[in-house]
C-alpha cells in the first residue's frame, strides 16, 4: 500500500564505503523439510453448516487468487462433515446432500497451486454420538455429562478418551486418504476444562495412583499431577494423529491449534520440537490490549520454533467476550494487528467464519495488505532476527509460582518490560526458559528476566554462564527465588550474579515510598542507569519489594530506599526516614558481562502506572548491560515497534507506528502519521549496502553509509514502513 503522506522524493544514492565493523554474521538454522516454509499468506474459510449449496465457490477462489494466498485451511470434519464421509456417527451438514464443498474448494485451491490443510473440530458432538457412546462425552465434577455451553442440544466431548483417540483418528485418516491434503489442523482439540469421565478417572489413576483433583486448591498434589498427565496425554494424541497422517501421506503433518507464551497449557519447548510449522490463533486486539500484542505472539512462537515458519491467525471481526463472530471491524484495527505480526515474523493467515458475506468491508483491507505482502515477499522471507536483546518467559513460573493468578504475578511484569522496550525502540526477542543453553542464547547480548521467579539450578547455571561469557542480565523482583517446582529457596538462585541475598521478607504493597538517586561522593557523578533523571534527587518507588542484603562490599548504590510514610492526613505527609543506605538496584560486572538487578516490581508497576522515570531506568539498564551499540537506532517522536531481520541477501528494519491516543481505552480508529524518523542501521558482518528501499512508500531511500552503518531519514510513517537494504 502506498502512503500519500510519504510521497516525497527519495533518491537512490550509491553506497559510501565504510569500515568492516558490524554485527557478527550468524549461521541460520535450517527450516523444516517439506512444504512448510513455502506458504507466505494463508486463507482460512471456516464453513458454517448452512454454507453447502449456498456459498459462492467462484468468489472465494477468486479472492484467494487476488490476495495471492498460497495456502488454505478448509473446513472438513469433526463437529460437522463438509464432505461425503462414510464414518458412522460422523455428522454431515444437513445442507450437504450429495455435495462435497470441502472437495470443491480443495480442487479449486489446488488449481491455484495452494497448499491445503483440512480443519477438524472435535470439541462438540451430536445426540447420536451421545446415544451410541455416552462414555465419549465430558463429565463435570458432579458426575453429569456436559452439554455444550452455547448449544445445549450438542454435547461437549472428552479430549483425552476414545472420542479423540479412536473416532477422530478415523476421521483424520479418512480425510487424508480421500483428499491427499497437506495436513490436518485441529481447532479446540485439547478439551474444554477438567473432565471426570470414566476414561479420565481410570487412566489418571493408572498413571498417577491418584484420584482426579477436585476443588481449586493449587497446593493439591493431584492438581499438578493431573496437569502433567493431561499434557502428556495431549502430546500422545498429537503424535498419534501425526503418525497416522504420515502413514497415508508422508508429506502431510498434524498441525494443532496450540501454543503461546508463559500461560500456554502445553510446554512450548516440546511444541517447538513436534510442530513442523505453527500458527498463533490470536484473532484480534480486544479491550485494553496493547497494539503490539500480536508481535509478542510472534516472538513467543519463534522462541521455540526457531527458523520454522510461523503464522498469525487474524479474524476480521470484533474480538470481545460477546463473540460477534460474524462481524467486521474497522480497517485500522485489522491493519495494525496484521502489520505488527508481519513486523515480528508472523505470516498472515486470515480466517473468515461463514462463507456468506454479511458485511464486505474487510475484503479490500485484507486484499491490500496481502498484495503488498506478495510484492515484497523477498524481503519478508526472514532468515533470522537481528535483535541482541531477549526477554525470558517462563511457563513453569506461570504454573508453579503464578498458580491461580499468573497474570498478576508474572505476566504483568512481562507486559511492563515489553512496553518499556517498545517505547525504547530496542529490537528484542522472547526466549523460552527451556532453551537457555549457549546454542540458543549466544545470538543475544542481553537476557531480561522480568520476575522469572521459578528457575531450576540448571537454568540458573545457564544464565550465570551466559554472563560469564560476556552477556548482560537485567532481572527484577523475585527472579530465581523459587525452584522450578515453585518451592521458595532460602536465597536467590542467582544471588552471586545479583550481588544480593534474600533477607527473608517481602513488602507486597508499599504506599507512598520513594527512591533516592545517588551520586558517587568522590566524583559527584551518577551511574549511567540514572541517565535522563538529572533534574531530580528522587522518584517514586514501585509497589512490591523483596528485602535484600548486599553480598560483601557494594559502595554507592545508584538507588536507595525511602520507606513508606503516611499519605493521609495531608499534614502527616513528610518522610519519617528521609534517607537510607538500602540498595534498590544492584549494578555490577560479573565475569565478562554485566548485571542489573531491581529487587522490586519496576516492570509490573510500570505496566500499571506507566511512570516515565521507571521507563528510563528499565531502558538504561538494558543499554548498560548490553554494552554495545544497538543494531538499529531510531530517533524521532512517537511510539514505534522496531524489528530488524536478515534475509538471504538483505536486511530489513520494520517500523510499525503505534502512535495513537487510544482515548485511554484501546480501540484504534485511524493512524496518526509520525513526524520524521532518523534510522541508523548496523549492517551485519561488515557488509555493504547495494541498494536501500522503503517498501511501504515504494521509494528508493537516500542513505549515508559510514563505519558499517547506514543512516537515513523517513519523512513520515503512517502505519508501517520497512527499510530494506540489499547487501
Ligand atoms: Zn474425560
Detailed description of the structure:
The protein is an alpha/beta fold and 727 residues long. The protein is built from 17 helices and 31 strands. Strands 7-6-3-2-1-10-9-8 form an eight-stranded parallel sheet. A six-stranded antiparallel sheet has the order 11-24-25-31-27-28, covered by helices on one side. A hairpin with a 4-residue loop joins strand 27 and strand 28. The radius of gyration is 27 Å and the shape is globular. The N terminus is likely disordered. Zinc ion (ZN) binds next to helix 5.
List keywords for this structure.
17 helices; 28% helix; 727 residues; binds zinc ion; disordered N terminus; alpha/beta; 8-stranded parallel sheet; single chain
Strand order of the largest sheet: 7-6-3-2-1-10-9-8
Q: Which structural class should the secondary elements be placed in?
A: alpha/beta
Shape, principal axes of CA atoms? globular
How many DSSP-defined strands? 31
Amino acid at each position: 500500500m502506498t502512503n500519500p503522506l510519504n510521497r516525497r522524493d527519495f533518491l537512490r544514492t550509491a553506497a559510501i564505503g565504510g569500515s568492516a565493523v558490524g554485527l557478527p554474521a550468524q549461521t541460520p538454522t535450517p527450516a523444516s523439510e517439506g512444504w512448510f516454509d513455502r506458504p507466505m499468506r494463508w486463507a482460512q474459510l471456516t464453513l458454517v453448516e448452512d454454507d453447502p449449496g449456498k456459498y459462492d465457490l467462484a468468489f472465494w477462489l477468486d479472492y484467494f487468487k487476488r490476495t495471492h494466498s498460497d495456502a488454505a485451511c478448509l473446513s472438513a470434519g469433526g463437529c460437522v462433515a463438509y464432505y461425503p464421509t462414510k464414518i458412522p456417527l460422523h455428522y454431515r451438514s444437513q445442507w450437504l446432500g450429495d455435495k462435497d464443498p470441502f472437495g470443491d474448494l480443495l480442487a479449486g485451491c489446488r488449481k491455484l497451486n495452494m497448499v491445503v490443510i483440512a480443519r477438524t473440530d472435535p470439541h462438540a458432538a451430536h445426540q447420536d454420538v451421545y446415544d451410541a457412546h455416552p462414555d465419549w462425552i465430558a463429565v463435570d465434577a458432579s458426575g453429569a455429562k456436559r452439554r455444550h455451553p452455547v448449544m445445549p442440544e450438542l454435547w461437549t466431548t472428552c479430549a483425552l478418551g476414545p472420542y479423540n483417540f479412536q473416532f477422530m483418528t478415523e476421521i483424520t485418516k479418512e480425510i487424508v486418504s480421500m483428499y491427499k491434503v497437506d495436513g490436518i489442523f485441529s481447532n479446540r482439540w485439547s478439551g474444554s476444562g477438567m473432565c471426570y469421565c470414566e476414561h479420565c478417572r481410570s487412566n489418571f489413576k493408572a498413571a498417577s495412583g491418584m484420584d482426579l483433583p477436585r476443588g481449586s486448591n493449587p497446593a493439591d498434589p493431584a492438581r499438578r499431577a493431573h496437569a502433567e498427565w493431561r499434557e502428556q496425554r495431549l502430546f500422545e494424541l498429537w503424535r498419534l494423529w501425526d503418525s497416522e497422517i504420515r502413514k497415508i501421506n508422508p508429506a502431510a503433518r498434524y498441525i494443532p491449534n496450540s501454543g503461546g507464551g508463559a500461560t500456554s497449557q502445553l510446554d512450548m519447548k516440546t511444541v517447538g520440537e513436534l510442530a513442523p510449522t505453527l500458527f498463533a490463533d490470536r484473532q484480534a486486539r480486544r479491550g485494553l490490549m496493547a497494539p503490539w500484542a500480536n508481535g509478542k505472539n510472534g516472538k513467543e512462537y519463534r522462541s521455540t520454533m526457531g527458523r520454522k515458519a510461523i503464522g498469525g491467525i487474524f479474524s476480521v471481526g470484533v474480538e470481545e467476550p460477546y463473540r460477534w463472530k460474524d462481524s467486521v471491524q474497522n480497517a485500522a484495527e485489522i491493519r495494525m494487528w496484521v502489520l505488527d505480526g508481519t513486523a515480528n515474523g508472523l505470516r498472515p493467515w486470515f480466517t473468515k467464519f461463514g462463507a456468506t458475506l454479511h458485511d464486505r468491508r474487510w475484503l479490500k483491507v485484507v486484499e491490500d495488505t496481502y498484495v503488498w505482502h506478495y510484492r515484497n515477499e523477498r524481503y519478508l522471507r526472514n532468515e533470522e532476527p537481528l535483535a541482541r536483546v531477549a526477554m525470558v518467559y517462563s511457563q513453569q513460573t506461570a504454573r508453579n509460582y503464578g498458580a491461580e493468578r499468573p497474570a498478576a504475578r508474572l505476566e504483568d511484569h512481562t507486559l511492563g518490560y515489553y512496553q518499556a522496550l517498545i517505547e525504547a525502540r530496542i529490537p528484542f526477542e522472547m526466549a523460552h526458559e527451556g532453551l537457555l543453553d549457549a546454542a540458543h542464547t549466544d545470538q543475544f547480548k542481553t537476557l531480561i528476566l522480568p520476575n522469572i521467579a521459578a528457575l531450576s539450578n540448571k537454568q540458573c547455571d545457564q544464565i550465570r554462564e551466559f554472563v560469564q561469557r560476556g552477556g548482560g542480565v537485567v532481572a527484577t523482583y523475585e527472579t530465581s527465588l523459587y525452584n522450578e517446582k515453585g518451592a521458595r529457596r532460602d536465597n536467590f538462585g542467582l544471588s552471586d550474579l545479583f550481588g544480593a541475598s534474600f533477607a527473608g521478607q517481602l513488602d507486597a504493597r508499599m504506599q507512598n515510598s520513594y527512591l533516592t538517586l545517588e551520586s558517587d561522593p568522590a566524583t559527584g557523578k551518577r551511574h549511567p542507569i540514572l541517565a535522563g533523571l538529572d533534574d531530580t534527587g528522587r522518584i517514586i518507588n514501585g509497589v512490591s519489594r523483596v528485602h535484600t542484603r548486599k553480598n560483601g562490599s557494594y559502595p554507592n548504590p545508584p538507588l536507595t530506599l525511602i520507606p513508606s510514610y503516611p499519605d493521609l492526613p495531608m499534614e502527616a505527609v513528610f518522610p519519617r526516614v528521609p534517607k537510607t543506605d538500602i540498595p534498590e538496584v544492584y549494578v555490577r560486572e560479573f565475569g565478562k558481562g554485566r548485571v542489573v538487578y531491581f529487587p522490586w516490581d519496576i516492570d509490573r508497576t510500570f505496566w500499571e502506572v506507566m511512570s516515565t522515570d521507571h521507563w528510563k531506568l528499565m531502558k538504561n539498564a538494558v543499554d548498560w548491560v548490553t554494552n554495545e551499540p544497538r543494531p538499529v537506532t531510531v530517533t524521532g517522536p512517537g511510539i514505534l515497534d522496531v524489528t530488524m531481520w536478515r534475509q538471504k541477501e538483505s536486511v530489513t528494519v520494520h517500523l510499525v507506528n503505534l502512535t495513537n491516543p487510544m482515548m485511554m481505552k484501546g480501540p484504534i480508529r485511524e493512524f496518526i502519521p509520525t513526524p520524521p524518523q532518523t534510522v541508523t542501521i548496523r549492517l551485519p558482518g561488515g557488509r555493504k549496502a547495494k541498494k536501500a528501499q522503503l517498501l511501504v512508500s515504494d521509494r528508493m531511500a537516500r542513505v549515508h553509509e559510514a563505519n558499517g552503518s547506514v543512516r537515513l531519514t523517513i519523512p513520515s510513517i503512517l502505519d508501517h514502513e520497512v527499510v530494506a537494504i540489499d547487501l
